[in-house]
Structures are given as structure tokens and as C-alpha cells.
Amino acid sequence: MFSVQNSRSQVRGVSLRLLLKKDIVLVVVSKAVNGTTTLALNLYAVHYLVPAEFGALTLCTTFLVLLDGMIGAALDLAVVKLRPLERSTSHGSPIEQAAIGLKTLGCIGFGMLLVIFAPQLGTLLLHRGDVRRLFLAWSIAATAVLTMRSTQLALQIRERYKSFACIELLNTSLRIALVIWMIHRGYRSSLSIMTSYAIGSSVALLVGLVTLIRTTGMRVWWRIRGAALVLGSARNALVTYGLSALVSRLDILVLAVMASPAQLGLYGSAMTLASVPEIAATYLAPAFLPRIEAYCRMGVFTRFFTRLHMLMYTAMAAGYGVLLWFVPRFGGHILPLKYAPALAVTLVLLPGTLATASIFPLSLNLLMLRNSRIFIYFDLLMSPVLLVAFTLGSRRGILTVAAVTAVFRILKTLIVQSAGRRAAVHAQIESQTKAENNAARTRMA
Fold first, then answer.
1. Which phi and psi angles does 340 have, rounded to 5°?
2. 397's torsion region: left (phi>0), alpha (psi -120 to 50) or beta?
3. Neighbours of 419 (CB within 10 A)
4. Which of 97, 201, 282, 397 lies 20 to 30 Å (CA to CA) from residue 30?
């Protein structure tokens, strides 16, 4: 008991600022730069793409987020759960290699299907059949992005945070430079932008693999052995993340089928603006994931959970108040005249995206590690309701679809945060009890 009390007294003297200084700041800053520049890039593209082309770009980026959320996040979580607790910088883990292999094979297989059936899918989703090159560029970008995330996770586990940040910033810089170059050369289309994504992510992936090989001394970072173990561990996360990602983007998918590409472009531009807080919070999640267990052992997780969310809620409420005043007066300086209807849609979407943003840093990962069924039950219950609501709403216009989206996200946030708070308390108690038991066994030995 003395060792645990001594540990707690040491914890009280440790500033949360110091706890966050080494790893989280580097990861968060690089991710925040990526999110901010992605937003700026989309707003830049809006001024040069017609709404129909921006609608095609919205659909492509939505599918990229879906694949990363359904497959990438689940496999990364499996790696964190399965990898041995001791750090290893001298060799690679078979679990990490299997995850990279699964991502690569899965993306290539899915991409081949997209390219083969491009005319049929293009007619269904974009009301045009000449999309094979667009889907090919998307497939390359998706494969590179998901595999690059695995290399970054491997570097993060080994505490190579500078390498993590450099790879993230390289990917961001290349993408921005290529998009600007393409647009100014006259290639103003969704195909040119997705091609820029593919090239930038591929180069960043190559640099990430080289860095990982130099860090670990292992030249082979792609294998299938251990894939069954990874898939078994990721099974619940695949279902949970997959269903959650699909439901969260159901509005885009329904509009792609039911509305015109121009309407999808207007809604996509509104979602681009409204998703700023959600994107920022999403990029916080990888930074906090490896620290949940450590904070629980130190006895500071519950306090950290409460303080972080109070800070987020205060900032979000103040930010939305400012936007209610700012957007009607100065929105015309953000979006061009042809996208003016999107401003009202943005204000309707914002409460939902602000609410959803609050679950990403801690609650989502915590519940995924301890009790992911809450997401499955809620999304299973709501998915048919949303499908009907979005289908009917699309007939009345994109503003109605936006209202349905906002209400759904607020309701989900209330349920998830309540469950997350209870899980945080239980996680800290269990971790401290385990520490006490281990200390007792050590004294007896």
C-alpha cells in the first residue's frame, strides 16, 4: 500500500503539461497542421471547381475517410492491444507487419473492384460513367494513406515522435504543393486533386518505411503471418468503427444517389467548413490513445478526462456564438458566390460536428478498448431511421438533410459521453487495484 500511496504523491507533483510535453504535443501539432491545411486546401479548391466537380471530390474524400475509419483505425487499435508491453527499437513486431500486409492487400483488392466496375458505380453515385481514372487515383491514395498510418503508429510506439511529425508534415506539404500546381496549370478537376493526394501520400509512405527500417533494422515490413490474430483482435473494432463510419457519412452517400452532383458539391462545401472541429478532434485521438493506460496507472485519468472535456465544451460554445455572428456577415469572403447556399447549411451542421468532436480525444478510444458494444447498439438502432430520414430529407433539400445530421450527432454524443465518464472511473480504479496487487506480490516475493 505504501508504494501506491507514494506513487500517488508523486503524481500530484507532476504537471499535466509535462505529461503531455514529449509525445502528445508533437503528434497533435503535426496533425493539427494537416487538418488545418486540408481545410484551407478544400476552400481553395472550391474557388476553382464547379459544384459538380467538388461533389465528386467530396465523394472521393468521404470514401477515403470511410476506409480509414473502417479498416485503418480498427487494425491500428488491434496493434496497440496485441503488441507486447515492452518497447522494442531493435526489431519489428509480427503484429505490426501483419497489419501493414492486411491494409495493403485490402486496399488493392477494393481498388481493383472500383476500377473494374467504375462505369456502373460512377453512373450510380456521380451520374456519369467516365470515372475510371478518378477511382484509380483514389485507390492509390487510399493504399498509401492507410499503410502510412501504420508506419507512423510503429514510430509512435517506439517514441520516435519527431519522425512521426516529419512524415505527417511531408505528406501535407506535398499534397498542398501538388494541388496548387495542378490548379494553376489548368487541371481544375476532382481527378487532378485526387492524383495529387496519391502522389503526396505515396512519397510520404516511402519515407516512412525507410525511417522505420533504419529505426528497427528490419527490412521486411509486410507479411501475412499473424494476420488471423490481428483480424481476430480487430473483429469488434471492425464492426464498430465500420458501422459508425458508415452511419456518420450516410448523408453524403444518400445525397450522392438521390441528389445531383451540384447539390452534393454544395453540401460537401458546407460540411468542409462545419467539420473543422471534428477534424481537429480526430487528429487528437492518436495522440491520446497510447497514454490512456499510463494515466490510469498514475491515477490522473479521471481528472484529466473531466478537465479536458470542460475545456472543450467551453471553447466550442464560445466558438459557435462567434460563428453565428461571423458567417452571415463575412461568409461571402470564404465561399464564392456560386456556393452561397452552403453558408446556411454550414450553420445547421455545426452544432452536430461540435458535439461529435468532443468524443474523439478520449471517450471513443476508451470505450473501444473497454466496451465497444454501445456504438454497435446505437448505430444499429439508428441506421434504418437515418436512412429513411435522409432519403425523405433529400427530396426537400440539403438543408433538411443537414438538420437530420446535426440532431443525430448531438444525440449520439450525449450517450457516448455518459458511458465514457463511467468507463473512465472504472478504468482508473481497476488499474490502481492491479498496481496495488502487483506491489503486494513483489513484497511477498
1. -55, -40
2. left
3. 20
4. 97
329-354 residue pLDDT tens: 887 788 888 898 999 999 999 999 99
Q: Where are the domains of the chain?
A: 1-25+249-445, 48-234
| pLDDT for the residue 135 | 95
Longest Cα separation, the chain? 75
Determine the Cα–Cα distance for residues 417 and 104; give it in Å rounded to an integer: 34
- Phi–psi pair at 155, nearest 5 degrees: -70, -35
In the chain, the amino acid numbered 101 is: G
Compute the distance between CA of residue 141 and CA of residue 144 in angstroms, rounded to an integer.
Answer: 5
Please provide the size of the chain in residues: 445
How far is CA 28 from its chain centroid? 13
Contact 131, 60 (CB under 8 A): no
HSE-CB of 152 using CA atoms within 13 angstroms:
29
* Cell numbers placing 110: 477494393
* 3 state SS for the chain: CHHHHHHHHHHHCCCHHHHHHCCHHHHHHHHHHHHHHHHHHHHHHHCCCCHHHHHHHHHHHHHHHHHHHHHHHHHHHHHHHHCCCCCCCCCCCHHHHHHHHHHHHHHHHHHHHHHHCHHHHHHHHCCCCCCHHHHHHHHHHHHHHHHHHHHHHHHHHCCCHHHHHHHHHHHHHHHHHHHHHHHHCCCCCHHHHHHHHHHHHHHHHHHHHHHHHHHHCCCCCCCCCCHHHHHHHHHHHHHHHHHHHHHHCHHHHHHHHHCCHHHHHHHHHHHHHHCHHHHHHHHHHHHHHHHHHHHHHHCCHHHHHHHHHHHHHHHHHHHHHHHHHHHHHHHHHCCCHHHCCHHHHHHHHHHHHHHHHCCHHHHHHHHHHHCCHHHHHHHHHHHHHHHHHHHHHHHHCHHHHHHHHHHHHHHHHHHHHHHHHHHHHHHHHHHHHHHHHHHHHHHHC
Number of C-beta neighbours around residue 128 at 10 A: 13
Sign of the CA dihedral with 431 first, then 437, 442, and 445 last: negative
Mean pLDDT by 10 residues, the chain (445 residues): 42 44 66 76 89 92 84 84 56 77 89 93 89 95 92 84 88 93 92 95 93 77 74 79 82 91 92 82 68 71 81 86 86 85 92 88 76 79 92 92 94 86 74 65 67
C-alpha cell of residue 427: 478504468
